[in-house]
Amino acid sequence: LLQVQAQEKKIFNETDAQKEQRLAWWTNDRFGMFIHWGLYSMPSRHEWVKSNEHITDSAYQKYFDLYNPDLYNPREWARMAKAAGMKYAVITTKHHEGFCLFDSKYTDYKSTNTPVKKDLIKEWVEAFRAEGLKIGFYYSLIDWHHPDYTIDEVHPQRPNNPKDYDSLNRGRDMAKYRTYLQNQVRELMTNYGKIDILWTDFSFPGEHGKDHNDWNSLELIKMIRKLQPGILINNRLDLGEYADGGDFETPEQYKVSEWPTRNGKRVPWETCQTFSGSWGYYRDETSWKDNKQLLVLLIESVSKGGNLLLNVGPTSRGLFDTRAQDRLKGMGDWMQVNSRSIYGCTEAPAEFKRPDNSLLTYNPATKRLYVHLLDYPLQRFELPGMKGKIKYAQLLSDGSEIKMHNTDKGDVALDLPVRKPDVEIPVIELILQ
Ligand code: JFZ
Known about the structure:
InterPro entries: FUC_metazoa-typ, GH, Glyco_hydro_29, Glyco_hydro_29_N
Distance between the termini: 56 Å
Function: Alpha-L-fucosidase is responsible for hydrolyzing the alpha-1,6-linked fucose joined to the reducing-end N-acetylglucosamine of the carbohydrate moieties of glycoproteins.
Bound molecules: 4-nitrophenyl 6-deoxy-alpha-L-galactopyranoside
Domain Glycoside hydrolase family 29 N-terminal: 3-339
GO biological process, one term: glycoside catabolic process
Low-confidence stretches: none
GO cellular component, one term: lysosome
């Protein structure tokens, strides 16, 4: 028992400073690419299509039999991620449908057995690493294909009448699934070199749900930490307060109102967001966000101390569809001149008041404050309470000086150019005293 406790201590009882150190690259980099890819890119109507439409295994089989992303070129994906200003990427190695994009010893339901015949993850890891991006694996705890995985409330074969769960699940054995899960995660943590992030998904406690007991989350996290000591693990293993619940929080698809806390302390967090609503490629979806909205998501996350993991759902041919490419290009055009307000930045200290229609970020290392102008004002722009605090002000877009005047009320007024700088959201860089 003592030995077990000592081991747990070694795995979990990091000091705050050690944890901060382990997360340092991630809190600096701020912006990553999420990739949801699987058989569901073929029906092209949501990665949950199997559950949403109650599709049986045999009816879903045609996608496996035909899966052939013949235009797959992960080096091209990595270049696009990098050009957009992203520093890390997380790909679905297996989503809820159960299909593995990697060559697992423990299943036949994998890409190597489809017409494409490749370990898609292996090529992906090599390509993204070669472009200098950090590597993350998404792994679905939920599995709608494995025969031992018990039918729960989100399973494609869930019953209309809750009384039928027991009879439906006769013969299914979650203990066997747990072993499968542990085996696959071990493969992912062993066969692909250094992995920077593991993104598990997800727990949904309840009578017909799944929680940490179903995954054996504690054993899983111990194994992962042993095999990949530096790795960052998200918070979807249902570990509660144990091990801080995970290395970072993952609020999804909505904007956080303020920096999330745990026991009164601010925690590292990352919001994941889609271009259009679904994560997997969805051909007919029309709810695509525009470039400005996506930039606001990034800036707003950093302004509250968080990261953005922005999702692309590649097509079944293996391409980023043109709508996704346009948006990545939009992010890249902005990041090319403005990334100084993103990398290494965080929430601004409370002494700096946020002017109307703006978002603030702050770089503690360089002591520079960034004002993002969401609605470009006409010429005069006031910074409340900033008198005596600013050494120099310039536009990030072209490095041109912005003249400053102190006002009688203790504010600083800036003389902005009448013509809006040629970027979606102009940024003022304030070099503080
Ligand atoms: C999950 C998946 O079901 C989805 O397909 C996608 O992979 C996404 C990134 O993660 O969806 C979730 C998981 C957790 C919450 C909401 C949707 N949650 O905690 O609110």
